[in-house]
């Protein structure tokens, strides 16, 4: 079901914009949902919309859904997509910002490996305007750094816990992208020769903490006879996947399999986050993403406890925060990527 609104908790506008040349669109492409916003030059959200991510169909279906979601957000803001000054897209996988291509997207629409010209396809649909492509978590962390939980710090690690586990870095006030894929904390090895990850490797953090991998593990355990409420709750909620709300409900009801899987995930997150702190000594850690935003209020202390045995300097721990922009951090960050002069 689509969701469109011109109101939200981050400074939504209340009228048709008067200067359409200074309005930007942002789209957050996730494994389960596509979130789109239209923002002004201050990053204030004027309109938003949400669609489910296509479960199959590859990049062509994804581009059509990106445009449809953006169109609803633009309509809520009182502007046509072709009138936007630019559009940014935050996407998981291997992003080449210069060529506007996206590859290795195991968690989206059945996945694809070869580079796909997502930016140019979307540019054709929005009337030829500027379309910028960036890593989904990197742009979300940039938004939290500029407007949200990271705004009081010069160095921040963002950990986005959702369908996969993504990361982003701001070092000394500068987003650090390395050669394009810096911050991929989900593919740090936390257990050599460990569980198989969606990327095909073994022992990655995402293999233990990513929602998709946890669901695969839950299904395997249930097939072996392990009792769980997870799939009953999923069917009751009319979902096809174990969404963050399903996990939250199962945890509330103290389901043993859900509890074990989440506690295992938190333990592995502690290993990975502490390792990043030991290397880079950032001031703050921001936890976001679908599962992160839903579960971190309950488990932020547990994540800190899981980090503690692995920290080299225990007397100077990083500040721990939950993403303040919530579900909109990725879409707002994508819009900022397109050019608002913050």
TrEMBL record:
Residues 1-22 are annotated as: Disordered. Pfam families: ROK. It comes from the Bacteria. InterPro entries: ATPase_NBD (IPR043129), ROK (IPR000600). Belongs to the ROK (NagC/XylR) family. This is ROK family protein. It comes from Corallococcus aberystwythensis.
């Amino acid at each position: 079901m689509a969701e469109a609104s011109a109101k939200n908790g981050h400074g939504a506008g209340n009228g048709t914009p008067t200067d359409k040349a200074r309005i930007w669109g942002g789209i957050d492409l996730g494994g389960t949902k596509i979130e789109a916003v239209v923002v002004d030059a201050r990053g204030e959200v004027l309109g938003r919309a949400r669609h489910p991510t296509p479960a199959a169909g590859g990049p062509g279906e994804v581009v059509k859904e990106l445009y449809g979601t953006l169109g609803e957000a633009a309509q809520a803001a009182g502007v046509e997509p072709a009138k936007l000054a630019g559009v940014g897209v935050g996407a998981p996988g291997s992003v080449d910002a210069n060529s506007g291509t996206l590859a290795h997207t195991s968690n989206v629409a059945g996945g694809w490996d070869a580079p796909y010209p997502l930016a140019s396809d979307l540019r054709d649909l929005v009337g030829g305007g500027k379309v910028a492509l960036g890593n989904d978590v990197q742009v979300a962390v940039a938004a939290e750094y500029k407007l949200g939980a990271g705004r009081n710090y010069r160095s921040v690690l963002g950990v986005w816990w959702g369908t996969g586990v993504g990361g982003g870095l701001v070092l000394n006030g500068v987003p650090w992208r390395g050669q394009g894929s810096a911050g991929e904390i989900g593919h740090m090895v936390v257990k050599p020769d460990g569980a198989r990850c969606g990327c095909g490797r073994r022992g990655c953090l995402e293999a233990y903490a990513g929602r998709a991998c946890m669901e695969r593990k839950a299904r395997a355990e249930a097939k072996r006879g392990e009792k769980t409420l997870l799939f009953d709750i999923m069917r009751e909620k009319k979902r096809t996947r174990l969404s963050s709300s399903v996990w939250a409900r199962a945890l509330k009801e103290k389901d043993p399999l859900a509890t074990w899987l989440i506690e295992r995930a938190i333990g592995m997150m502690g290993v990975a986050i502490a390792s990043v702190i030991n290397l880079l000594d950032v001031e703050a850690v921001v936890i976001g993403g679908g599962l992160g935003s839903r579960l971190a209020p309950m488990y932020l202390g547990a994540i800190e406890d899981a980090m503690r045995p692995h920290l080299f300097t225990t007397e100077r721990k990083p500040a721990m925060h939950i993403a303040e922009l919530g579900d909109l951090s990725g879409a707002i960050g994508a819009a900022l990527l397109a050019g608002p002069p913050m």
